[in-house]
Amino acid sequence: MQPRDLSDHVAYQAGRGIEEVARELGRDPSEFVKLASNENPHGPSPAATEAIRETASSVSSYPKAAHADLVAAIADRWDVADEQVWLANGGDGAIDYLHRATIEPGDSILVPTPGFAYYGMSARFHHGDVAEYGLSRADDFAQTADGVLEHYDGERIVWLTTPHNPTGSTMALEEIERLAAATDEETLIVVDEAYGEFADRESALALIEGRDGYDSRDDVAVLRTFSKAYGLAGLRLGYAVVPGEWGEAYARVNTPFAASELACRAGLAAIEDGDHVERTVETARESRERMRESIDAHVWPSEGNFVLVDVGDAGAVAEEMQERGVIVRDCSSFGLPGCIRITCGTDAETGRAIETCNDVLAALELDADSRRESEAEVPDT
């Protein structure tokens, strides 16, 4: 017996961890810094850490109360009804819920390329098809309604990532509103704001609730996560905020107790820890500006907690930086083989990343010059 045909499914490639790299190279993990997965350089919210300690003895119980409490806290944070918050096991869990609630076999979704592979993976799990719209390197990966509509063909869901991973670009709220107005009545626009805290832009939640001069819409949903700004990536906690009319669907697509007791209690503490989020956001802003100013290669502007760097040969640069103790993301898996992505780290980590990247770029250029000189000296035969 075999599983169903999964040949059109692409496996998600996660960033490599310090322990994994250290074992492979036979070195001490303390020699490395990981700037490959857009994790919080300050770790989890201290309040969340304390909540985990206090909650540990109660994990024998199902997290029904904790789940309800966190949903209420998120709803209060965004001034929406509890029923509009779909709590999930990470942002990818929320992606699955939205696909379960929306996609019929044969329906399609429209996703950005480059982009997050799990949008398409999840749709295919639910027997949907996947179409793509491109973000152009020539246009600095600008995101516009027209750029999406050029490829739109009545898809059931259109995915926007703003800030976009791995480029850091954003789509203006006016453009999202224009896109929603131009697509079919049965098309849902989902705005993935996993990096929303790092952007100096208003959340697309204003479109759902009709705030700040915008008309309320029933065809927009927003995705958020506790993994980045709150530093809870290891707990897997995320959520979607959906239109009010969608509220009842959650009970029919949700897995029982989707988020664990520890995750919920940590999330409750983290959402109140504004100091930790503020510190994290400020660190990211300083780090990305410093990298833009100091790396000896083109660095695109970013509103995430990372920057995209044009290095020519991502595989070679990422491998050599890793050898020198700095783990970054080779963006070949995103379809950008000339680029690496560097997570914003602490002041010391950012300095090390800049120095290492510049040294590697200089060394590779020197090697290339030497090869060219050697080839020029070979006589014709």
TrEMBL record:
Key word Iron-sulfur present: no
Entry-linked InterPro entries: Aminotrans_II_pyridoxalP_BS, Aminotransferase_I/II_large, HisP_aminotrans, HistidinolP_aminotransfase, PyrdxlP-dep_Trfase, PyrdxlP-dep_Trfase_major, PyrdxlP-dep_Trfase_small
Reactions listed under catalytic activity: L-histidinol phosphate + 2-oxoglutarate = 3-(imidazol-4-yl)-2-oxopropyl phosphate + L-glutamate
EC numbers, comma separated: 2.6.1.9
Keywords linked to the UniProt accession: Amino-acid biosynthesis, Aminotransferase, Histidine biosynthesis, Pyridoxal phosphate, Transferase
GO process terms (BP): L-histidine biosynthetic process
Domain annotation Aminotransferase class I/classII large: ranges: 31-355
Residues carrying N6-(pyridoxal phosphate)lysine: K228
Cofactors named for this entry: pyridoxal 5'-phosphate
Pfam families referenced in this protein's UniProt entry, alphabetically: Aminotran_1_2 (PF00155)
Molecular function per GO: histidinol-phosphate transaminase activity; pyridoxal phosphate binding
Pathway: Amino-acid biosynthesis; L-histidine biosynthesis; L-histidine from 5-phospho-alpha-D-ribose 1-diphosphate: step 7/9
PROSITE patterns recorded: AA_TRANSFER_CLASS_2
Entries under NCBIfam families matching the protein: hisC
HAMAP family: HisC_aminotrans_2
Family according to the record: Belongs to the class-II pyridoxal-phosphate-dependent aminotransferase family. Histidinol-phosphate aminotransferase subfamily.
Protein name listed in UniProt: Histidinol-phosphate aminotransferase
Annotated organism of origin: Natrarchaeobaculum aegyptiacum
Taxonomic lineage of the native organism: Archaea, Methanobacteriati, Methanobacteriota, Stenosarchaea group, Halobacteria
